[in-house]
Amino acid sequence: MACHANGYVGTPTDCFACHEDDYRGTTDPDHELLAFPTDCTVCHSTSGWDGADFTQHDTLYFPIYSGRHAGRWSQWRLPHPAGNFGSFSCFLCHSSGDTDPRHTGVPGYAYDSNLCYQCHPQGEAGGR
């Protein structure tokens, strides 16, 4: 509030100009290591810095804020256990004992997260 007591009048409109140290010092998740964009507004808003949301995830990658998977996890590490946003796993929640019987007779089925995503890009039962 020391910087924004009078709103944003006279402050740069590029958040990173003032918040570069915050960006570089954030470790959960590590913004710099994971090459997050330096446009803070992608995840943060001016009404609250904490509790950032990357709602674009739903349209760009996989629906985590909407649909059947909304509210299923509270930390980004759960579907990205390697600490890398380039990899993901469906298996924290979906065991082979649960999925194998549901895919009897599905050509090319294998218990593999990348294959799951190919047939279930929106996380819906029944596939594409």
How is this structure best summarized?
The chain is mostly helical and 128 residues long. It is built from four helices and no strands.
Keywords:
128 residues, elongated, single chain, 4 helices, mainly alpha
SSE pattern, N- to C-terminal: HHHH
Question: Rg, please?
Answer: 19 Å
Largest sheet: none
Number of strands: 0
Helical segment count: 4
How much beta, percentage-wise? under 5%
Q: Report mean pLDDT, rounded to a whole number.
A: 83
Helical content stands at 10-25%
Distance between the termini: 48 Å
Shape, principal axes of CA atoms = elongated
Class by alpha and beta content: mainly alpha
Low-confidence stretches: none
Question: What does this molecule look like?
Answer:
- This protein is mainly alpha-helical.
- It contains four helices and no strands.
- The protein has helices spanning 15-25, 57-60, 96-99, 113-119.
- The longest helix is centred in the first third of the chain and has 11 residues, at 15-25.
- The mean pLDDT is 83.
Task: Spell out the blueprint of helices and strands.
Elements: H1 15-25, H2 57-60, H3 96-99, H4 113-119
